[in-house]
Amino acid sequence: MRCPKCGSENNRVLESREVDDGLAIRRRRLCEDCQSRFTTYERVEITHLMIVKKGGNRESYDRTKLARGIYRAFEKRPTTAEAIELLISRIEQHIQAEGLPEIPSSLLGEAVMDELMTADPVAYVRFASVYRSFTDLASFERELKDIKKNNKE
Question: pLDDT band at 34, cuts 50/70/90?
Fold first, then answer.
């Protein structure tokens, strides 16, 4: 692991602890050369998972791409990065549990929607507006009615 400040590989672990309900390990490190402290995360990598898009195109699963969309949905919402990372880890755990080498993008999208619905209804609507390609106000209104109906049950 290289120090982000000086680039040295000469560092040691000061502390390790589980995060994301045991799905990742957080390590605090100290660079022996510049004395800078930094944090790294270790998590299980989803390898060789292909996402099958609506048009039939296939692309490799990319956690960064998934995280970008979810962080965007939570923009200016009262939540922490740690809570968002935990949500992303739960989504990954869900798709890993499928045990398939390829999954349709719709399965991934619905897993995201399920997690967002319970975490933050506003983030859910933001994500849904892009994911479901809302084209008019009526689309938003239908989705809001569904949310209200589900929250009453």
Answer: very high
